[in-house]
Structure formats: C-alpha cells, structure tokens
C-alpha cells in the first residue's frame, strides 16, 4: 500500500478513506481478494479528502477499481470485493 499520487490513477485499485479501522479492514479485504484472483495490482490508499471528494464520494470507506467507484460507505468482505473487481475488469 502507498499513499495516493497527486493525480488519481485510472487503472488499479484505490481505497478511499481517512485510514480508520474500517478503511484498513477494506484494504485488507482488497489485498486478499487480489491475491486470490492472482492479480498483481497495486493498492493505493487515498486519504486526502479533496481527492476523495473528486471521486464524488461522500461516505468512506470507498472502493475504486480502474477509476470507477464501485462501493462507498461500507466495509466489504473479500468475496464481495472479488466480485466487484471481476465485474469491472470483464
């Protein structure tokens, strides 16, 4: 995991949130899901609220896959994360 670059990536996976325990739980589920899917994808954790707002997200944690917000305001379990990633990348 690393902090977000100045420009938000259009490819890859981003967890949006302040870094609270819920955000960390979502990030862990994302990392586990990517590992199980065999995808070598970098996970970026965006903590800057201006960047989060640029995605149109008002409730965190949120999940962004390849530039598309797929979930916000809830901690997803690993299986749900896998399903969302596969839907975006099909």
Question: What does it look like?
Answer:
The chain has 90 residues and is of the alpha/beta class. It is 38% helix and 21% strand. It is built from 3 helices and 5 strands. The protein has a 5-stranded mixed sheet. β4 (62-65) and β5 form a beta hairpin. It starts with a strand and ends with a helix.
Please render the helix and strand layout as text:
Blueprint: E1 2-3, E2 13-16, H1 21-37, E3 43-46, H2 49-54, E4 62-65, E5 68-72, H3 78-88
Parallel strand pairs: 1-3, 2-3
Antiparallel strand pairs: 2-4, 4-5
Helix/strand order, N-terminal first: EEHEHEEH
State the low-pLDDT regions, or none. Answer: 1-8
Report the end-to-end length measured between terminal Cα atoms. 24 Å
β-strand amount: 15-25%
Oligomer: single chain
Largest sheet: 5 strands, mixed
**If helices are DSSP runs of H or I spanning 4 or more residues, what is the number of helices?**
3
Taking strands numbered 1, 2, ... along the chain, how are they ordered across the largest sheet?
A: 1-3-2-4-5
Work out the helicity level: 25-40%
Radius of gyration: 11 Å
Shape: globular
Find the count of extended strands (DSSP E, 2+ residues). Answer: 5
Chain-averaged pLDDT = 91
What class, by secondary structure content? Answer: alpha/beta
């Amino acid at each position: 995991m690393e902090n977000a670059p100045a420009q938000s990536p259009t490819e890859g996976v981003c967890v949006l949130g302040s870094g609270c325990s819920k955000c960390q739980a979502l990030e862990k589920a994302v990392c586990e899901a990517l590992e199980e899917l065999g995808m070598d994808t970098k996970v970026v954790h965006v903590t800057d609220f201006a960047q989060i707002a640029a995605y149109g997200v008002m409730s965190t944690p949120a999940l962004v896959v390849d530039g598309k917000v797929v979930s916000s305001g809830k901690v997803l379990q690993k299986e749900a994360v896998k399903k969302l990633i596969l839907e975006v990348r099909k």
